[in-house]
Amino acid sequence: MADQIEEIKRKLDIVDVVSSYVPLTKSGKNYKALCPFHSEKTPSFMVSPTLQIFKCFGCSEGGDALSFYSAIEGVSFGEALKEMAKRAGVKLVSRKQSPEERQKEKFYEINRLASDFFHHLLTKHDVGKPALGFLKKRGLSKDSIEEFNLGYAPRSWDSLGRFIVKKGYTVTDLLQSGLASRKDQGRGYYDFFRGRAMFPLRSSTGRVIGFSGRALGDEQPKYINTTETPVFEKRRLLYNFDLAKREIKKKKTAILVEGELDAIALYEKGLKNVTATKGTALSSEQITTLSRFANNLLLCFDRDAAGLEATKKGIFIAQSAGLEVRAILLPEGKDPDEAIREDEDGFKDLVEKAPPIFDFYLESALSRFDPLTPLGKKKIAGEILPVVKSLANEVEKAGYLSRLAKELDIDEKVLWKQLEKEEAIEGERVFASSVKETSKSSKLPRKEAYLFAMLFSVPPSRIKSTIRKIALEDIKDLKLLALLEALKGYLKDIKRFRLENFSGKLDGDLRRVFEELVLIPLPQTDVEEEFAKALAAVKKGRFIRERKELLVQVRKAEKAEKPAQVKKLQRQIQELSRKIDGKD
Ligand SMILES: [Zn+2]
């Protein structure tokens, strides 16, 4: 099996695999792109064709072609392997699953069993009749109940639990799957969902990963969801995405609603590109998934102010990811499922004519503040400028800014100035957070890491002469020092330096450091010149360290009253200071 994985990796080029999802541009020996795993405005996603690996310096996602495919398609390693084998033309013999995969497989299976159990009770059993009546009253067709495998969780304490355990699973499995809770007192468990209409939640590949249970009456909470499990993460979930994704890709548009009932209603009426979040908040994970399939996002959320606020952050992320966001304005007080069932054509018309989200926010701000008073102008601008700021397209930005200027009856220049101020602050924030993220992933000191990155980008024929310029004392970081020693030793014995061969000589920890260094995004400048600059910066760091050390010694010598020693040390300090100031 290990051989087959190697064969697949040999036959596949990571550049091909990645570039079928994101456009890559050449950057020295590497390629760079806007990261498909998080939203960003400047590329920090790097691919090395030499080492056949990728890494994002913003969100620290990284790995080889297989892990890229598994991450971007949201599939398991096994599934990625199958697909990649197909592409590479390699026949797979059966493969042993890793313990993690087996663990996940178990939870998929338990959820599938539960889903069928609930569905059986809803459709074939008397106990499910009230729930069936409830769903039909909400307008759901028999076909939908089948297609979405809807179900009913009975009011009993442990009927699902007993069913799962009878199928050969342990109580621990049951508890970990989120389908049962431990009793507060005494031993045992009780079913997590009781007396609710059940909506199985499926992954983007269509596997049941959890449930949403809706109360049949007015009980609170109206919905309860599976808690986080090894297979279910709420912030990643897009309900119905597995069925909708093809249509979303085709139409380049995703309709986003808030709940399962809305999604099913729209899907039933032919709007097959509908998917739902759980609640109004849109996570960056959900947006990242959506932006791989769609250019347009059509929001169909509650139009009240609270809903608007909750969605705002997600909308900003979506806009800065380049998605065009529009909003469907529903008749006051109507849910999407009611609205489409009452007036299908009218609803589809609303979808067609959905205005940009900018209009939505502007209208809302204008209805709450008076654009004629200075305070009102300030409030409105304060709400709308962040919406404009998050737009990725400059032309669009200009258009909206001029509209806002007209509405507020103030000079456009004033708004531009204010926007620049906001962008400057935002820029710093983004930069600071990306630096923080990077250091979290590598923990390498920036200047030294950069020097190594430059070193690995000089032509192989010149690496021997270049590395001689770096002294072991120049490097403070222990990992980098170990790497430098390894490289110096390695270069003694070989004629031609090749990155991939050297990589093979390193053990796991050092290899990871090395791979990261090779992928650090570099400016497109003269390599030798940039190397010299980087080396100067690192040497300066070394001199500063040495000077600090000498200052400590001076103080000791002064205390010990050794004037000759003090003088000698001070001369050395002066010399270092000259070097640090670049006068040497
Ligand atoms: Zn990233």
Topology of this protein?
Elements: H1 2-11, H2 14-19, E1 25-27, E2 30-33, E3 45-48, E4 53-56, E5 62-63, H3 65-73, H4 77-88, H5 99-124, H6 129-137, H7 142-147, E6 151-153, H8 159-166, H9 171-176, E7 180-182, E8 189-191, E9 196-202, E10 208-215, E11 223-225, H10 241-251, E12 253-257, H11 260-268, E13 274-276, H12 284-293, E14 296-299, H13 305-320, E15 324-327, H14 336-342, H15 344-352, H16 357-368, H17 374-389, H18 394-408, H19 412-442, H20 446-455, H21 463-467, H22 478-493, H23 499-505, H24 508-519, H25 527-559, H26 563-580
Parallel strand pairs: 12-13, 12-14, 14-15
Antiparallel strand pairs: 1-2, 2-3, 3-4, 4-5, 6-9, 7-8, 9-10, 10-11
Helix pairs in contact: 1-4, 3-4, 11-14, 14-15, 16-17, 17-18, 17-19, 20-25, 25-26
Bound molecules: zinc ion.
Zinc ion binds next to loops.
Q: Report the major sheet.
A: 5 strands, antiparallel
Question: Which strand order does the major sheet show?
Answer: 1-2-3-4-5
- CATH names the topology of the largest domain as DNAb Helicase, Chain A
The counted number of beta strands is 15
CATH architectural arrangement of the largest domain: Orthogonal Bundle
Residue fraction in strands: 5-15%
Shape: globular
Rounded to the nearest angstrom, the distance between the terminal CA atoms is 59 Å
Mind telling me the CATH class of the largest domain? Answer: Mainly Alpha
Ligand inventory: zinc ion
Average pLDDT works out at: 87
Count of separate structural domains = 5
What integer value in Å does the Rg equal?
30 Å
User: So how many helices?
Assistant: 26
Structural class: alpha+beta
Flag low-confidence runs.
430-441
Residue share in helix: 55-70%
